[in-house]
């Protein structure tokens, strides 16, 4: 018999979301750009965050006839130990997006094969799997700077040029580019018309790559600490 907990999702502040990402997500970094952060509590204890943002690729919605403001990305699911299935947490978070941002019509997300992720949480939530993207050196490379991989958008947010020669000269002489091996792409429609439009793109879900139970989050040991819990007593609509 599964343990019952009181689950609550609500908008949360940047500092609390940053704490969750840096402690409970494999990337250890907040995504750059405009974000919407949704905190997750179980029995009033902060256990993580779900983050959506505008896509780094402003043309991503073109193939669907959408503007960059009608499609967003699920970019982080950062959770510590929790009882509620991730699929239920995502369902509530997506409902919040749909209700509060009626202009949104489609959500995209990716499962990183470099982390041995296949997208199990998306399959469990009924997302449409469209296949692999960014094979070999065809995708946009990340920068490995001081031993830490950074997305080009994060490099720009730090005021650095997205140029490996500039990075080597001004930041880290040993920096280099890291090309993606490939990512599984998933889509979640927010209205019936969009569902019908993307259904033809559906492919069979990929098989599990490892024994991990979550793809976008790193479920590390630990509890919702006092600091993030206190920080989340005050809510705000977006961050």
Describe the structure.
- The structure is a single chain.
- The chain has 2 domains: 7-135 and 181-231, Gcn5-related N-acetyltransferase (GNAT) (Aminopeptidase); 140-178, no CATH class.
- It has 7 helices and 10 strands.
- It has helices spanning 14-24, 86-100, 120-124, 152-157, 164-170, 192-198, 226-231; strands at residues 7-11, 35-42, 45-54, 71-79, 106-112, 128-133, 142-145, 148-150, 176-178, 183-189.
- The protein has a 7-stranded mixed β-sheet with strand order 1-2-3-4-5-10-6, with helices on both faces. Strands 8-7-9 form a 3-stranded antiparallel β-sheet.
- Strand 7 (142-145) and strand 8 form a beta hairpin.
- The radius of gyration is 18 Å and the shape is globular.
- It starts with 6 loop residues before the first strand and ends in an 8-residue tail after the last helix.
- The relative contact order is 0.21.
- Mean pLDDT is 83; it is low at 210-239.
